[in-house]
Design brief:
The complex is a heterodimer of chains A (about 150) and B (about 775). With about 150 residues, chain A is α+β, with helices and mostly antiparallel strands. Chain A is about 30% helix and about 15% strand. With about 775 residues, chain B is an alpha+beta fold. In chain B, about 25% of the residues lie in helices and about 25% in strands. The chains are: A alpha+beta (about 150), B alpha+beta (about 775). Chains A and B meet through helix 2, helix 3, helix 4 and helix 5 of A and helix 1 and helix 16 of B.
């Protein structure tokens, strides 16, 4: 039986009808129509669905929506400010860190927390920061370059 | 050659959309009133379905349609996209749904409902009665008399047994000073594209289908779907996905979802969406495991005298790609890359009750390269030969006749530069003798090369190999490119953009690769076989040349000059040698599409009939040849002899891919290819319960691929200065080479570290400790 909830996504309150067993991922994609967050495995294995909950990166597929209704959710759609790309987004373009791009949004969200906690991470810290996110196209090298670039900007 | 765009790493046109959410993935596609499909899969690896009762499932509120094997046309075909459905080289043993189950996970029923939850709930209410049949999971067991038989038409489960030979094997081995024999085994691995396989199929009331899917070939999907459903091809429109979330060969054949969703759409009159769970993806496609028996005779002067190769390929329940993987493995993986005067290769594609094999980047060559390059390393170690000189003695040279394609030459083929520059960069001359380190962590350096590969499929008799494109100039000075070439993520959009921008003297941001479907775009073969840059690149260049011709015709009418005398430079059309005659190309385009009076800055002005008509050009063609890229990869690593863990420290990959079209993307191919190759070499393994046939590693928690933590910090690409005369701006192919060599290179480096050779992949810590006598 669906319930109506209010969910704060990217500083906007969404009124949504959800099943009590819905994950945050399903809520975002299928209920709120916000498809920037990707479903890669639905079992906490790939990180494509990473979003921020009160600033902390989580796998939205492993987060029940009912557990976050009083929290602030940030997705890739919330990254640009005043129509300008987030430095991470620009850096991912400039570094050539995007191939198929399916993992990109999740990795940028994980990186967002990484840079918020540690604005000048070492390469090892970057590697650790995105180690919960799989990429099959890039070998991570240009992704790491992009995060360094964003940190420097 | 002076270029404006080629070789300059333009900004990827798809990157902005992808970093802002990526709206255009097939997984995001939906239609009003769309139903959701779920598939019931067999828990048994070999069984006869005695009965299926769907009555309870059909009663569930929200269920709109149910399919069982009896509802599916019994069309036997090969689901592989790059060949015709009845290609003689392939085995036509595949049907959309059968009442004989041959692998655990085979679809036995499908449900379409108003929600995924309801469809899943309905699956649980379908009652299937099975009669279990005896099983066989090992291909060599399956070949024995008395083994359980999977397909009536294939005694001893041998779906295909090709062979080729030349020379005199007995004389060759007699001539040898040394004979080396080994058995090299590879495992089942998954491509691990990140976007699941997904489709939405809609049907019109007159039975026409429109298909959105995550597949690597728009035209192949149209052909196979029409055949499976026994309808005319013209009744199926496949829309090209703007891009997909990875493929790597894993989306190179019709999945069950497209056919079943199509039938359910026809049945219900609604659009039907099917999306794989990750578990379904894992059991839908794999690189075929191949066991290679390899025997090589060598003379003291380092040359081969004879080689016999026997390759046993585990096809799984249906031959599909296994019919062709075995050939590519034989031709380009083992037999023709090396010069050997007497050779025999025998291949066997064998049915088992394992999951069906599929395409995967490199297609049979990584298995071959692992065997041959491991043994080459053994030969050099045992005989104390310089391993680089040994490779050079036994490989082809630039200008040699192509070893497979009669009448073609290896026109660009810088294998020596690849080996020498790679060796110098890694410091190969400083490597220590194998197993000589007394430390717990032992350093190793090793390499492998692959001396023959493809830029597409010219020379393969059954495989489609032509491309087409249409290029249209707009009045605002931009170009639209219509091409059915699918971008898997590996940069086809960038490549097509760069080619058109270069040819038409446009800024890359003024070129747009636009909507395409099978109704409106010329045929294009799949994005596979490292063919897109060479084949689709050449065809798109040819289309741009046609567009330019049309531009010059219109300009000739405006300027009252000869079209043949025109040149296009920096957006200006002019008579060659007369810069004063220059007119902006946008003026010509605008006049060509204006009414007879054109209003310009100087006011209204008349135009002529002769200059009218959209500036547009098309081409559809097969490429002239199949140039071979070559490459050599050098690895430096540590093996911890207490834990067996391998740490890759440094990778140098030097390749000859002709003129590099987009250096940043080319590096990305090397780096990403190494991630897959390292996984293949060290950790990835799809594992199955040998009693039940159930997949034990059907998610990323159990199937480990390299993360940012395991990947080395240094992957260095060297692109050898080269130019392929038949290629677009001198380019040839790249992608698959990046995954053919890493496993062999890593295996050779592990040997150099510990002095013990592992001949079956993956080289896990357990195998290393066992080899060191520590387990």
């Amino acid at each position: 039986m669906k319930q109506i909830i209010e969910l704060d996504v990217n500083d906007e309150v969404h009124e949504l009808a959800v099943e009590p067993y819905d994950s945050l991922l399903r809520t975002l994609r299928d209920r709120a129509g916000m498809q920037g967050t990707k479903r890669g495995c639905d079992s906490g294995g790939c990180g494509c669905c990473t979003v921020l909950v009160d600033g902390k990166a989580v796998y939205s597929c492993m987060t029940m929506v009912m557990s976050v209704i009083d929290k602030k959710i940030t997705t890739v759609e919330g990254l640009p400010e005043d129509g300008e790309l987030d430095p991470l987004q620009q850096a991912f373009i400039d570094a050539g860190a995007v191939q198929c791009g399916y993992c990109t949004c999740g990795i940028m969200m994980a990186s967002k927390q990484l840079l918020a906690d540690n604005p000048n991470p070492t390469e090892d810290e970057i590697r650790k920061g995105i180690s919960g996110n799989l990429c099959r196209c890039t070998g991570y090298q240009k992704i790491i370059d992009a995060i360094k670039m964003a940190a420097a900007s | 050659m002076s270029t404006n765009v080629i070789g300059k790493s333009i900004t990827r046109p798809d990157a902005y959309d992808k970093v802002t959410g990526g709206k255009k993935y097939p997984v995001n596609y939906s239609l009003p009133g769309m139903l959701h499909m779920k598939i019931l899969r067999s828990p048994y690896p070999h069984a006869k379905i005695l009965s299926i009762d769907t009555s309870e499932a059909e009663k569930v509120a929200g269920v709109r349609g149910v399919l069982v094997p009896d509802d599916v046309p019994k069309q036997y075909f090969t689901p592989v996209y790059f060949v015709p459905h009845n290609a003689p080289s392939m085995v036509q043993d595949f049907v959309l749904m059968s009442d004989t189950v041959r692998w655990a996970g085979q679809p036995v029923a499908a449900v379409a409902a108003v929600s995924e939850d309801i469809a899943e709930q309905a699956l649980e209410l379908i009652d299937v009665e099975y009669e279990e049949l005896p099983t066989v999971f090992d291909p060599e067991e399956a070949m024995k008399d008395g083994a359980p038989q999977l397909h009536e038409a294939s005694p001893n489960n041998i779906a295909k047994a090709p062979s080729f030979a030349f020379g005199d094997m007995d004389a060759g081995f007699e001539e040898a000073d040394h004979i080396f024999e080994g058995v090299y085994e590879t495992q089942r691995v998954h491509t691990c594209y990140m976007e699941p396989r997904v489709c939405v199929v809609d049907s019109d009331t007159d039975g026409r289908l429109t298909v959105h899917s995550s597949m690597q070939h728009t035209f192949g999907l149209r052909e196979k779907l029409a055949y499976a459903l026994d309808i005319a091809e013209s009744k199926v429109t496949v829309v090209k996905p703007t891009y997909i979330g990875g493929g790597f060969g894993g989306k190179l054949d019709i999945g069950f979802i497209e056919g079943l969703a199509a039938l359910l759409s026809l049945k219900t009159g609604k659009p039907v969406r099917g999306e794989h769970s990750r578990g379904e993806d894992f059991i839908s496609t794999t690189r075929n495991p191949i066991k290679v028996y390899l025997k090589t005779g060598v003379k003291k002067d380092s040359t081969y005298t004879a080689r016999s190769i026997r390759s046993i390929l585990d096809a799984g329940a249906h031959a599909t790609h296994g019919s062709e993987v075995i050939m590519v493995h034989g031709l380009y993986g083992t037999f023709f890359p090396w010069k050997c005067p007497n050779q025999l290769w025998e291949g066997f594609t064998v049915y088992t009750n394992n999951m069906i094999g599929g395409g995967y980047r490199g297609y049979g060559a990584p298995q071959g390269c692992f065997a041959v390059e491991s043994q080459n390393d053994e030969i050099c170690e045992t005989l104390g030969i310089d391993p680089i000189e040994f490779r050079l003695k036994n490989t082809h040279r630039e200008g040699d006749p192509h070893p497979v394609l009669e009448g073609h030459k290896l026109a660009s083929y810088k294998i020596e530069d690849c080996l020498r520059q790679g060796a110098e960069r890694i410091g190969f001359d400083k490597r220590k003798p194998a197993g000589s380190s007394t430390e717990v962590k032992k350093r190793g350096i090793g390499f492998a090369c692959h001396p023959l590969w493809v830029s597409g499929c010219v020379g393969f008799p059954d495989i489609y190999e032509h491309s087409g494109a249409t290029v249209k100039l707009n009045r605002d000075g931009t170009a639209d490119v219509i091409s059915a070439c699918v971008d898997l993520g590996s940069g086809q959009i960038s490549m097509l953009t760069a080619v058109v921008a270069e040819e038409l003297s446009l800024a890359p941001e003024n070129v747009r690769v636009v909507y395409a479907d099978t109704d409106t775009a010329p045929f294009d073969a799949p994005t596979h076989a490292s063919r897109a840059t060479y084949s689709a690149g050449l065809a798109t260049k040819a289309a741009a040349v046609e567009t330019k011709k049309r531009l010059f015709q219109a300009a000739a009418a405006v300027m009252e000059a000869n079209a043949e005398d025109m040149v296009l430079e920096d957006g200006m059309v002019m008579v060659k040698g007369a810069p004063d005659s220059a007119i902006p190309m946008t003026d010509i385009i605008a006049r060509a599409e204006s009414p007879f009076i054109q209003v310009g800055e100087q006011g209204p002005a008349p135009t002529t009939i002769a200059e009218k008509g959209t500036i547009i050009g098309s081409a559809s063609q097969a490429p002239p040849s199949n140039p071979s890229p070559v490459g050599a990869q050098f690895i430096e690593l540590d093996v911890d002899t207490d834990t067996g863990v391998v740490e890759i420290l440094r990778v140098v990959y030097s390749t000859d891919i002709g003129q590099v079209i987009h250096p940043n993307s080319a590096e990305g191919q090397v780096e990403g290819g190494f991630q897959q190759g390292m996984g293949y070499a060290l950790m990835e393994n799809l594992q199955f319960d040998q009693e039940t046939g159930a997949c034990l590693s059907a998610d990323f928690l159990d199937y480990k691929i390299p993360t940012s933590m395991e990947m080395p910090a240094n992957i260095e690409s060297i692109f050898i200065d080269s130019n392929e005369p038949s290629g677009p701006y001198g380019g040839k192919s790249m992608s698959e080479m990046c995954l053919i060599v890493p496993a062999a290179a890593i295996a050779n480096a592990v040997y150099n570290a510990i002095g013990v050779r592992i001949t079956d992949l993956p080289i896990t810590p357990e195998k290393i400790l066992k080899a060191l006598g520590k387990l």
